[in-house]
Amino acid sequence: MEGGGNSIILACIGAYLAVCIGVGLWALRRTKSTKDFFMAGRDLGIIVTALAVFSSTLSGFGFVGGPGLVYRMGMSSLWMVVCASVGYVIAFYLLGKRLRLFAELRDSISLPDAVAARYKSQWSRGLTAVAILLGVMGYLGTQILAMATVLQDILQRSFGPISLEACVAFSCAVLVFYCVTGGIIASVYTDLIQGFVMMVAAVLVLLAAIAAVDGGFAGMSETIMADDTESMGPWGAAGMMTSLSWYFVFALGLAGQPHVITKMMMCRRVRDARSILPVSIVAYAVSALLWISIGLVMRALVLQGAHPEIPGADAAAPQFLQAFAHPLLAGVVFAGLFAAIMSTADGFLNIGAAAVVHDIPRALFGRSLRNELLWARIVTVIIAVVASLFALYSGQEMVALLGAFGWGTFAAALVPAVAIGFNWKRATATAANVAIGASLAINFGVQLFSLPVPFGIDVGALSLLVSLTLFFGISLMSKPPQLDRDIAAVMDM
């Protein structure tokens, strides 16, 4: 792309960052309490909630990591992106109504609040908060790294070499301002804008991808198969066990993603869940076209010699947009991508800050911190800095793999205790606590000590299987719990 084209992209991104500042300042005036900061006042409409749910699922993970994973592993990645649509149905069926009712009954401002109400256990509240905080580090790191990767690729074309560390620092600074001022309100209303932008952009990018390769997708498939037949097979280069374990984690695991399911607590009316679900699925399915198309087409272009070898798989999306898409389309997609990253990162910072200032102190001392709103903003800054360092030095080489680790951490810890426990009266607090603790030990033990997992099984799938087994086994061997009458009534609905 010529210098003028890159200037258009930079102008689009600059305009978006200015909008972020405006949204943050606008949301600051509407954020008067911790209920506003963490729950948007539980007053969101159907469209706003639906697009917030879908955007939380895709974001930088999907728009940077997704194409990178397709570029590297071929069709393996489809077992993440396609089955997530199944995950929406499972999550809304299990939690869409119950979470909102729990929030209404006990005036919950966080997911651990609802967990504590369900199990009558401060240990369950504390362990859920710890699981959320640890998972946030992996997944928030994904968002910051994705934003920095895109920013680095764009700036280098105009200003020469620039370090990834500098881009991470800039991304973190912008993110902190946006999140500290506006809280979750800034996130969900940005989702409303960027959700529509990304759906339109995904379709236009798909058309640009088809036009970029000789012979369209047929020519692309022939080129990739000639180089690596396995990558275009049903399991891709990652193999059958890895693909199936991703299906397991991403289909069932969506019901354990706190940044997604927490938004089910924010809608205005309980009955809105039935309308939110189809809107979220359609928006996700359309936007996922970008995930699939760019990765495959970019790999074919490199193999055909139409584009030089890219420095890393995560550069597939930014380099395709700058080289083969119209500058205005590329600028809009990049601006929408930054919006997706910022709003999702805000969601992670929000639930992480709630864990630190609201839930962990309540679990330990029986009350949250004084001046909770002030401390929420201070802790937001600290979490953003720590997650940035984790993203840079965690040893993960791809945004998608870092995101998969965060997703698996959440899924294994929270699917049993929340998705199953909120629907099964026989579930006990002890079972929930053991399942959460065991899942964290497996996920982080494998990661920290580089332990091998046999047969290419994803560590998130392994830990989810273990946590589910422990959860069911301990619950069935324990005395049935005595539920509060209002909680039992909600679970009967």
> What characterizes the major β-sheet?
none
Number of domain modules: 1
SSE pattern: HHHHHHHHHHHHHHHHHHHH
The count of DSSP E runs of length 2 or more, i.e. the number of strands, is: 0
> What do the pLDDT scores average to?
84
Distance between the termini: 57 Å
- The CATH topology is what? Sodium/glucose cotransporter
CATH first level: Mainly Alpha
Identify the CATH architecture: Up-down Bundle
* Proportion of helical residues: over 70%
Radius of gyration: 22 Å
Secondary structure class reads mainly alpha
- For the record, what is the CATH homologous superfamily label? Sodium/glucose cotransporter
Offer a concise description of the structure:
The protein has helices spanning 3-30, 34-39, 46-57, 59-73, 78-81, 83-106, 111-119, 122-159, 164-212, 216-227, 240-253, 258-261, 273-304, 316-324, 327-365, 372-393, 399-420, 429-449, 459-477, 485-492. By secondary structure, it is mostly helical.
Describe this structure in words.
By secondary structure, the chain is mainly α. 78% of the residues lie in helices and 0% in strands. The chain has 20 helices and no strands. Helix 4 (59-73) packs across helix 17 (399-420). The mean pLDDT is 84.
